Structures are given as C-alpha cells and as structure tokens.
Amino acid sequence: MSRDGGTRREAPQDKPSRNEKQAAAINSDKKRILVSAAAGSGKTAVLVERIGRLITEAHIPLSAMLIVTFTNAAAAEMRQRIVLFLAGKLGEKDIEEAQRAFLRAQLSAIYSAQISTFHAFALAVIREYHFKIGLEPGLRICDEARGTILKNEAAEELFAERFANDYDNFTDFLRHYAGEKNEESLREEMLFAVYDAIRVSPDPFDRLREAVASLSKPAREMFAGSVAAAIRAEVVRTLTKTLALCRAVRPLLETGGAHAYLPLCEADTDGLARLLAAAEDLKNAKRSADAPHGPGAQEDADRLQALLSAVSDFKFATFSVSNKEEKAKYKAIEADVKRLREKAKRLLREGLAERYCRRSLEDCAAEINGTAPYAAYLAGLLEAFHEIFTRKK
Question: How is 281-294 classified by DSSP, letter by letter?
Fold first, then answer.
C-alpha cells in the first residue's frame, strides 16, 4: 500500500514476474486475444507490457494503435503507465541510438495517441466522418438532463398531434395498453423504454417492423424456426434438471432402507425419462427450423403441442405405502426426499406447465395475433417520436 492508503502501482521498470497466462498475453503474436480476469489481478499492467513489447520489439508506433477503456480515469492511468514504461526503457544504458530515437518519438506522441474511452473514440470518429452519416460538423453531445427535456418535449408534441389528428386510433391504443397509467408513466414505461431498447440495433426500425410482422403469423409459422427451437431447448433443459432431482431421491431411499418406496421413485424417473427422450428427439428435428413453411413444419408443431400436453398431464407418484416398518424408515429421510421432489415439481410446474402448457399453441398464436395491430401502432408512434426528437436535437 502507498502512504496515502492507495494500492501501490507497479512501475514497469521493476520488471515484475508474470505467471504463465500473463506472459502468454504479453508475448502472443496473435491479433485477437481475450484477457479475462478479476479486478486487481493485473490486467492493466499486462496490457501496458503488451503495448510496450509491440513498441520496442515490433516497432509499431503509438499512432497505429487504438487503446480504449471504459472510464476517463482508466484512460489517464493507461497513458501514465505507458509514459513510465517508455521512460524506463529510455533510461536503459545498452540501447541503440535508432531505438532511442524511436522511443523518444513515441514518448512525444503519447498525448496525441488514441488512448481514450469507447465513447470518446466513437465521438472522434463521428466528428471526422459526420458528412457520411448526415450530421452537422459542429455536433455536440447531448447530456442526460438536456436529453430528458428534449424527449419530453418531443413526446408532448407527438401526443398533441395524435389527439388532434388521429384521436380514435390513439385513444383505442391507450385504452388497451395504457390502462390506469397517467401520461408520464406512459412516456417512461412505453415510449421511452422501448425507444431506448431498440436503439441498440444498427437498423432499429427495420428490425421493429420485422418483429411486428411476425406477430401476425399463423401458429405453424410462429412456433417454427427459432421460436420452436427455443421452446424445445427449454423443455429439454427443464426436464433434464427435473429428472436429475428425482434420481437423487433413490440413493436416499436405499441408504435409509425405505425400499418399498423405490418403485414410486422409479415411476417418477421412468416417466420423466420418457418425456425427456421425446423432447430430445423433437429438439433434433430440424425440418421446421430449416424450412418453417415446409411440409414437415406442421408435423413438428403438432409434435411440440403433443409434448407440451404430455408435460402438462404428467403426475408425480404419491409417496405412500402401507407397511408401517417402511413408513418408520422413511420418516427419517422424509424431509430430504420431500425437498428434492418439491423442487422437481415446482421446476416442472413453473418452468414449463405454467409457461407453455395451459393453452394450445393455436390459442397462444391467436392471442399474439390480436396484439399485432397495437404493436404496429406503437411502432408508428416510435418512428414519429424519433423524427421529432431528432429534429429537436
């Protein structure tokens, strides 16, 4: 620790020892490497040494490097550590004059080098190439407070326009999805939240229109392809965990001598194993994933519906026997057995039955289809909001 209570930083010239993986990260000639480690494990020091090796051994100038961090403080620290590294190298006696001149040039260039946060680098790129994306050269960053004000102004203008020019459709949308929310809640929870969420996509409104269009598909198409694959994978994962919990009951029964309960345990595990085998077989069927409109898609959708119905109808065995001696033996392990079985039941019920098995896929698709017009209206609101917000910015 330093005298002021902070952690003592390694000076690069101390040449600290590195473990095997750190040394590999420093000395690797690969262009793409990932270093993942806990906080305080020396990632920054390893990166500085890697940069230093690229400068001193590969003679790559700082002007050819992009070094980005998450915070301004980290960027400043990185710059300072590279300065210390270069200064340490220049202090070595057995260094050739050409190398010394190269290192001096890098030291002189340190404050013009691209060492910054991700956001600062992105802003620099935008300012340099603003004309390619239709922005003005004097663009400024809109801080959070100003952005909030502009968003609210844009929302007020949008709502006023819809009330004036599209009253029936707008109020119908609000009745279905605003509920008891006031106007402020509607802005925050629907307009702003969805707008911020979709902006992470390179083409947010194209993706949004595709998502809205998918809500109008019939059940066979809706529950084919990636959607069906996701459901099938979830069924397999949940049944695998449920079966493992039930299988863990058997050793408890055997150890406790409650052998009369073993057939009941086997009834659970055999039934779950059959469901899991059917789920895995269906998961491996790629017809609907490869061709959601093909002849096999309907068959796969029917099989998925049958599997979900079987999961919904599955009943765990009632753990009860008439033999008093067996009951007494079971009493000693009953709490542990119940804990495992209740966890298995809850996993099957909450993980699958309540999520996928209460209604048919046709009924689910019909309900989703009913949301399509309102999702389309919301998409239109978002695009109009984006136009107004962009203009105000």
Answer: HHHT--HHHH-TTS
